[in-house]
Amino acid sequence: MTAAPRPLRIVRLANFVTPASGGLRTALRELGKGYAAAGHEPVLIVPGERYDDRDTEQGRVITLPGPLLPGTGGYRVLTGKRHVARLLEELAPDRLEVSDRTTLRWTGTWARRARVPAVMVSHESADGVLRTWGLSEAAARRAADSLNLRTAHAYARVVCTTEFAEREFVRIGVRNVVRAPLGVDLAARHPALRDPALRDRHAREDETLLVMCSRLSVEKRPGTALGALESLRRRGRRAVLVVAGDGPLRSRLQQRARERGLPVTFLGHVRDRALLGALQASADVCLAPGPAETFGLAALEAMACGTPVVASASSALPEIIGSAGAVAADHGDAFADAVDTLLGRRESDRREAARARAECFGWDTAVAAFLAAHDAPAPGTARPAVVPEGVA
Fold this sequence. Notes:
Blueprint: E1 9-14, H1 23-37, E2 41-48, E3 52-56, E4 59-65, H2 81-91, E5 95-99, H3 106-114, E6 118-122, H4 126-132, H5 137-154, E7 157-160, H6 163-170, E8 177-179, H7 196-202, E9 208-213, H8 223-234, E10 239-244, H9 250-260, E11 264-268, H10 273-282, E12 285-288, H11 297-304, E13 309-312, H12 317-321, E14 326-328, H13 332-343, H14 347-358, H15 363-373
Parallel strand pairs: 1-2, 1-5, 2-4, 5-6, 6-7, 7-8, 9-10, 9-12, 10-11, 12-13, 13-14
Antiparallel strand pairs: 3-4
Helix pairs in contact: 1-15, 4-5, 8-13, 11-14
């Protein structure tokens, strides 16, 4: 009789996580919950304001004091390499999973010396982020290629969530890349969250309610959503925009909305996940303008709520939304055109298509794929990871 696989201690490190951060925090939480449910022992190490160590639904979470990064709207990073390395030695991981290929890349060397299989999760397109910071396409590609080559050499595997994210590794000949999609909580995000009273609070019956759930930072290009709203109103469509999210660009965006007379409501970070789901479900269209997104969890959550998404054609989201949404070039007029296209479809058809597409991306599939990347199948199971159609 074959023995069941041994439970593994999977230690995860991540930077750029805050109490108000979105997609990365969601991914870390859901993967940790999945690892624990599969019988493994997940441990997450993140930076914070002060030290903390507690058991949670996603396993043990250790918070180490980390300095604020100026101009990032609250991001902190793990510093003190010796202290982190000493903690890793004490934890004695069976597997290491790292979600920061810049300041934490040294952990790949640590893992190799400690003979611990390690993976780096690529949560962003390096050249895409560099381009949003103002580098030319050629300069961004050169810098990204150098960074990605060093990352691939430092880790046993690099995990990419989409073909879009994988491309920048494939072009430099990296062979240790594996694909593992993220997911969405299909029970917590569903069309029944639609709340007429909440919708009435933000838009009149004859108005189109647009929603953007995004960190308000340069790489997310939130100004495109305001440009889309301005373009729609200029062409006669009665539309309003609600922004759920915070970040360093918030005051600048608020000033722009005031100066141009745009009906934009800035909610800041919405901690109540049920309220956020109701907002996504009550919108007519959700906007996802980030050109460097390698998956787009907020967009997928909106689709699970039955709300179609307009996304940047430069991002990975065309892979995710398929024909259930629309894509646009990275400027307001193009996003406005895509909104008009979606609204030209029968409401029941566009909402049913959005939900059906989201149902391809359950967290059980994502967890299975990530565990396979760790060579860590769930104890007592042998189910292979399945990548949803359109993401292969």
